[in-house]
Each structure stands twice: as structure tokens, then as C-alpha cells.
Specification:
The complex is a heterodimer.
Chain A lengths: L1 H19 L3 H21 L3 H25 L15 H22 L6 H8 L5 H9 L2 H22 L34
Helix pairs in contact in A: 1-2, 2-3
Chain B lengths: L2 H38 L15 H11 L10 H19 L24 H10 L1 H10 L3 H24 L1 H7 L4 H11 L2 H4 L1 H14 L11 H4 L9 H26 L22 H20 L5 H29 L6 H16 L1 H4 L25
Helix pairs in contact in B: 1-2, 1-12, 1-13, 2-12, 3-4, 3-5, 3-12, 5-6, 6-10, 6-14, 7-14, 10-12, 10-14, 10-15, 12-13
The chains are: A mainly alpha, B mainly alpha.
Chain lengths: 195, 389
């Protein structure tokens, strides 16, 4: 119980740092803190498989990619200019209120599919059995749909960043010239496997 | 003394002991590595401080503690200090989860510091946090080479984490549990896992080398290109902390390989005839196996040259990941359709896969080392680089 409260408080602190920090890297680190605290919450509810996956996927991979982008784009200087989008604060406020309302509705109308004690007992032992069974029977369609969505996102990203192969001077891309030894095809990382 | 306090104190004591053991091993590992490398390269190595150079680690420690701790003007102070602490903290935490003996075998206590149900998954999670140390250290230095080194290393570690996780999936399916103790006990009954998952082990070994940034994957600190990578701006004790983290990670990786594929804390059973009960002595067997893998790490460093960065990426994504997937599918199909045939056909299949890979290595090499036409055929337009990666 004490651990639960402590971790909850830590998660909130991290979230506040994420929003309030002026340096994008510090904000991302705050988010890492929040994600780790949430993983700790999972672990204290004896869902250690979820906790491990939370750390591996979110804190270990996705946030590293966030930081990667921040550093590559040199976006870690404090933002001083004005927001180019009008009404952004008001819109964000409205969105936040709607989200909070939705979460509150869910929190108060949620009914356990099975009693809590039973669920905890199923998760104990650390095997992914309980999670896997639910994911691949009851939620099979959403699960597969999400993986297709991720695949689409990857293909889209590759299509966006892919530049035409460089041509020798004086030759336009439209004409093209066979290069001595074709360039290796760029491959899309199979990100969908992990997430 | 109430029970919970006693349990807490014992756990604390075990934690401190493990940390001390790891740090001592690190100190002597540096000496052993330098001596061994020297021997492989027909030199002498450090042999002046104490007999056989045995006091060298002590001298190094004193030196790095009393050296000036340089402060870099452009550094982000908080993150700059935090990075080495994160690196060593995660490295030390990870090792605590590995069992060094059967439950209750260490003077009636369990020979591990903590145990989570998720076992190997939790350990992978903790080691995957170790990338933050390198990554943040490189960024916070406020300098170009460290930044480049840390970007490289994070890309490398994320890429190889995938292959690493996938390569043990077959093992997990065979055992049916992620807890270390169950994996070791399964091996005690059926034989070492490396027999049944030789392909999986080969993939895991390679990914482990990449994960701990050792030669041939030591790109984050490629001296010729990046000065010292993420370490460039660090000095004195902070630098030493990073070095510690690297070596402790190596020890952890060795322990994981020993536990998952080589029977963990259990010794060979045929020695039971000489000394009864020898195969379940705690700690001894694990330490021996770790020592073997540490030697392997040094041996490879003395043997192989470093990958080029694009070769590294192609190797990870085009060879390691598909093979790990194939291994997973093979094991899953075997378990689904031919479980009745016992485990040995699977062992044979896996071994055949590995041998085929070795035999065909000249053919598959073009996957990650494709000639890009910069050689002799390039005369027609030499001035322009072909670009690409």
C-alpha cells in the first residue's frame, strides 16, 4: 500500500515535470520517470509481466526514440517563440477536460470481468499465459488491427523519408542512369513485432 | 526483531555483498583483460605494480578517485552527473535477479537478491534501461563526438534488443516459464538448453556482444572515428563509473547466458559419483560458467575487427532478426505438431540450421556487406559519392 502511494506520487511528479520542463530532454526524462513509476504500480499489483513489458517497450524503446529525435533535430533548446497555432491553450484545456471526463466515466462505470482476487491469481507466476490468452482470444481482432496500423505507420514513414537515388551530375531524376552496383534497398524495421 | 525487518536486513546485506563482489570482479577483470590481450598480442602487459601486476587495479582506483573531476562548460549539469549513476545503478540492479543456487541453499536463505515472477523479462527490462546512461551521458556533455557516439549506441542497442528478445522466445516456449529457477530446473531434468536451441544460443550470444558494446560491436567508443564516443568529456570517477557499468553489464550478460543455456547454478551430474551433492552447490558453478564467458568476451576482442556502422545495422536487421523469427517459428511449429517425438529431433534441426548458416556464410555475407560499386567499376563518375545509407 505504501509502495503504491509512493509510486503514484512519483508518477504524478514525473508527469508534471514532463509538462512543465522548458528543456525537451528534461521533459522526456520526466516521462521516463512516470512510465517507470507506472511499471512499479503494475509490479506492486503482482502483474510483473505487464511491468516488464511496460519498461521494455515504453521506457526502453519508445522513449529512447523520442530522445533520439529530440537530439537529432536539436530541439532541446528552450522554446521562446509564440505558438503559431491560435487558441492552442483553450483547445488543449477543452481536450483535457473531455479526456478527464471520459476517464472518470470509465473509472466509475468499470466492472471487473472477473473478481480481483481471481485475476491476480491468474497473473501470478509471471508467465504471460493469462495476458496472452485474453489477447489472442477475446481481443484478437483489435490486437491484429493495431499491428496492421503500426505496419501502415512504418511503411508511411519509410515512403516519406525515402529519397530518389542520387544521379550523376547533369542527369535528372526522371531520366535516371543505371548505377554501377545498385544501391541496397532500404528496409523497413519490423517495429510491429515488438509493440 | 520482527520478521519483515530481518528479511529486509538480509536482502540489504545480500545486495551489498553482490555489489562488492561485482565491483571487485570489475577491478580484476580489467587486469585480466589487459594481461590476456597482451599475451594474445605477444606483449607483456601491466606487470610492474605488485607481483604479476596484481596491485594494478588498486593503483587505477586511487588514480581515478583523486583525479580532477573536470566540469564541462557546455554540459547540462544535472544530466551530466546523473548519467554515470544511471548506468552503474542499472547494471548492478540487473545482476541481483540471477539465482546462484537452488532456493534456500545459501545458509538457509535464497541465493538471489530479488526475484520477480517475470524473471528473464524483468532482467531484459532493467538492462534495457542501461542505454539511458550512455545516451544521456553523450548528450549532456554538450559536445559533438559524444553526441554522435551516444546516438549510434542507442540505435545499436535498440536494434539488437529485438534480436535478443526474439532469440530466447523458443527457449521460453520449451520451458513454459520465464522464471530463472524454473528454467534451470528444466535444464537439470532435460539437459542443457544449448543442445536444443543451438541456433537460438548463437543469436543470443551475438546480440549480447552488441548489447554490452564489446568488440566487434564497440562502435559507441570507436576511437578512430569518435575520439572516445560518449566517454570523451568524462574524466576521473565518472569515467570510472561508466567503465564499471560496461564490465558489470558484461558479467550480467555472461550470467544470463550461463543460466539460460548452460544449466545455470547446476553443475554436471557425473561428478556426483565423486563428491555427492556437488552439482547443487550454490555459487561455485555459476561463477565458473561466468568466468568462461568473460574469457570468451576477451578472446573475441583479441580476435575480431570492428564492424562498420552500416554493416552493423544490416547485420542486425537483415540477418539476426529474421533468423531469430525463423527459430521461434521452428520451435513453435515443432511444439505444436511434433511434441510426441521428444526433444532430440528439435536439437538436430537447430544444429543443422546453425551448421547451414556457417557453411553458407560466404553467400549470406552480401546481406550486410553489399558491395556498393565504389571499387574498380567506379571510374566513370568518381567525384560523386553514391550516397545510400
Amino acid at each position: 500500500m505504501i509502495a503504491f502511494l509512493l509510486l503514484g506520487a512519483l508518477a504524478l511528479v514525473g508527469a508534471v515535470v514532463t509538462v512543465a520542463a522548458r528543456n525537451a530532454v528534461h521533459a522526456a526524462l520526466g516521462l521516463v520517470g512516470t512510465l517507470l513509476s507506472v511499471a512499479g504500480l503494475f509490479a506492486s499489483l503482482s502483474a510483473s509481466f505487464l511491468a516488464a513489458v511496460q519498461v521494455i517497450v515504453y521506457a526502453g524503446a519508445i522513449l529512447v526514440l523520442f530522445l533520439f529525435v529530440i537530439m537529432l533535430l536539436n530541439a532541446h533548446q528552450p522554446v521562446t517563440g509564440r505558438d503559431p497555432v491560435p487558441f492552442v491553450r483553450e483547445l488543449a484545456g477543452i481536450g483535457g477536460v473531455i479526456l478527464a471526463g471520459a476517464l472518470a466515466v470509465i473509472a466509475f462505470s468499470y466492472r471487473d470481468p472477473q473478481p480481483l482476487a481471481q485475476g491476480t491469481a491468474a497473473l501470478r507466476g509471471g508467465t504471460a499465459g493469462a495476458v496472452g490468452e485474453t489477447l489472442l482470444t477475446r481481443f484478437l481482432l483489435p490486437f491484429e488491427a493495431v499491428s496492421v496500423l503500426l505496419l501502415v505507420a512504418i511503411v508511411g514513414a519509410v515512403a516519406l523519408v525515402r529519397r530518389p537515388a542520387p544521379q550523376p551530375d547533369g542527369v535528372t531524376d526522371a531520366e535516371g542512369v543505371a548505377l554501377p552496383g545498385e544501391l541496397p534497398e532500404r528496409t523497413a524495421p519490423e517495429g510491429g513485432v515488438r509493440a | 526483531m520482527p520478521d519483515w525487518l530481518a528479511a529486509l536486513l538480509i536482502t540489504l546485506l545480500k545486495g551489498v555483498l553482490v555489489a562488492l563482489a561485482l565491483l571487485t570482479t570489475f577491478a580484476y577483470m580489467t587486469l585480466i583483460e589487459r594481461r590476456l590481450l597482451a599475451r594474445m598480442q605477444i606483449r607483456l602487459g601491466p606487470n610492474r605494480v605488485g607481483p604479476l601486476g596484481l596491485l594494478q587495479p588498486l593503483a587505477d582506483a586511487i588514480k581515478s578517485i583523486f583525479k580532477e573531476d573536470l566540469r564541462v562548460t557546455m554540459a547540462d549539469k544535472l544530466v551530466y552527473t546523473m548519467a554515470p549513476i544511471v548506468a552503474i545503478g542499472m547494471a548492478l540492479t540487473a545482476f541481483g535477479g540471477i539465482p546462484a543456487g537452488p532456493p534456500g541453499s545459501l545458509f538457509g536463505e535464497n541465493p538471489w537478491v530479488y526475484q520477480l515472477d517475470a524473471g528473464i523479462l524483468a532482467l531484459l527490462a532493467i538492462t534495457s534501461m542501461g542505454v539511458y546512461g550512455i545516451f544521456l551521458g553523450g548528450w549532456a556533455s554538450g559536445s559533438k563526438y559524444p553526441l554522435l557516439g551516444s546516438l549510434r549506441s542507442s540505435a545499436q542497442m535498440i536494434s539488437y534488443e529485438l534480436g535478443m528478445g526474439l532469440s530466447i522466445l523458443g527457449l521460453l516456449m520449451l520451458v513454459g516459464s520465464t522464471a530463472f529457477v524454473n528454467i534451470v530446473e528444466w535444464q537439470a531434468q532435460n539437459g542443457w538448453m544449448v543442445l536444443f536451441q543451438s541456433l537460438g544460443f548463437a543469436l543470443f550470444l551475438v546480440s549480447s556482444f552488441a548489447e554490452v558494446n564489446r568488440t566487434p560491436f564497440d562502435l559507441p567508443e570507436a576511437e578512430q572515428e569518435l575520439v572516445a564516443g560518449y566517454l570523451t568529456e568524462y574524466s576521473a570517477i565518472k569515467w570510472a563509473l561508466f567503465q564499471m557499468a560496461e564490465y558489470v553489464n558484461m558479467i550480467t550478460a555472461s550470467a544470463i547466458m550461463a543460466t539460460l543455456f548452460f544449466g545455470g547454478y547446476r553443475g554436471p551430474v557425473f561428478l556426483e559419483g565423486l563428491v555427492p551433492g556437488i552439482s547443487s552447490w550454490p555459487i561455485v558453478w555459476l561463477v565458473l560458467k561466468i568466468a568462461f564467458f568473460l574469457f570468451l568476451f576477451i578472446w573475441v576482442r583479441g580476435t575480431l575487427p570492428r564492424f562498420r556502422y552500416d554493416q552493423l545495422m544490416r547485420f542486425g536487421w537483415k540477418l539476426l532478426l529474421p533468423l531469430a523469427l525463423a527459430n521461434t517459428m521452428l520451435t513453435a511449429a515443432y511444439l505444436a505438431f511434433a511434441r510426441g517425438a521428444g526433444l532430440w529431433p528439435l536439437a538436430l534441426l537447430s544444429l543443422l540450421g546453425l551448421l547451414a548458416l556457417l557453411a553458407l556464410s560466404d553467400r549470406v555475407r552480401v546481406l550486410w556487406n553489399q558491395p556498393t560499386g565504389r571499387g574498380a567499376a567506379d571510374d566513370s563518375f568518381p567525384a560523386r559519392p553514391l550516397g545510400g545509407d
